[in-house]
Specification:
With 97 residues, the chain is mainly α. It has helices at 3-13, 26-39, 45-59, 74-78, 81-95. Helix 2 (26-39) packs across helix 5 (81-95). The two termini are 20 Å apart.
Length: 97
């Protein structure tokens, strides 16, 4: 297993199962792992949505939430907060020697 896959699995473990979307989520969590590596704890909610949008574009290109971050309702934006928290926590743990 690669470092990306290890980080992706660590992020996924921090997400409650009822919040995990259906379908093949391995590519989604790999995108989140890239965010953890590239941005670390400075990753933003908008970054998380961008990664999700990249994944969702291949799953359901007509999904109602595939729009710019600032056009989403506060509730839709807030739905990604558990992912943001998980990415930051894994990035923090990964950065520690």
């Amino acid at each position: 297993m690669s470092d990306i896959d290890d980080l992706a699995a660590a992020i996924e473990r921090r997400i409650p199962p009822d919040l995990t979307p259906g379908g093949d989520t391995a590519p989604l969590f790999r995108l989140y792992a890239v965010l953890a590596l590239a941005k670390g704890e400075s990753v933003t909610l908008e970054d998380v949505l961008d990664a999700w949008a990249a994944w969702m574009s291949g799953q359901d290109p007509g999904h109602q939430s595939l729009k710019p971050f600032d056009e989403l309702t506060a509730d839709v934006q807030a739905a990604d907060e558990p992912y943001l928290d998980a990415i930051r926590a894994v990035a923090r743990a990964h950065a520690q020697p």
